[in-house]
Design goal:
- By secondary structure, the chain is of the alpha/beta class.
- The protein has 8 helices and 9 strands.
- Pfam families: Epimerase.
Length: 250
Amino acid sequence: MVGGLFRNLRYNLDFLRNNILMNDNVLHTSYESGVKKVVSCLSTCIFPDKTSYPIDETMIHNGPPHSSNFGYSYAKRLIDVQNHAYNSQHGCKFTCVIPTNVFGPHDNFNLEDGHVLPGLIHKTYVAKKNGTPLEIWGSGKPLRQFIYSLDLARLMLWVLREYDEIEPIILSVDEKDEVSIKEAAEMVTEAFEFKGEVIFDTSRSDGQMKKTASNSKLRKYLPNFKFTNMKQAVKETVDWFQANYDTSRK
């Protein structure tokens, strides 16, 4: 069960209970059925709120998560705990990946509950269609590392086939590729050729100001992995959304 900042703020208990139940069902059924390997997804938003940057895989349990999504965060952290317990007691090869902010075709473009980039794409589509200003929640200053879903898919297959550690691994673009929400919004408006007014609603929460993640562990394994240029990835996602608007998740 996933969602953006504002859905997390409303439903922390649901995020906690539903994800704990899903985690336990999937992992225990995998153990009982003799599944050879399970790769679960965590998120950089589950790391401690008060921490040093960049964050890395050793820091997941070093302090409380941000108060906006504590339910989701603790539920997802427990997957790492369970993976180690299944390995120590039963020898199971269960592991986790930690992607940064994922986006791409077939995303959830819901205006209320979606993540930041698909939400921006849908908002810009509506603003351009209606000739209205584009309103962005928050100041636009928080920094994020975005990963294109097709790049993540390639890395997930590598983890499934080649990565043998129980310890999690961060799947992220390099630190230098971190962008602000404002910069991400500019890529979206450019892809749409949106010429209208852009307004930042600073009465809305920004959430965490940064979540900079180190991909040094990934780079040790795959030093030459090429990530898709973000502007190109945003343009491909915008084009897909416009072509599939009627049937997209929103």
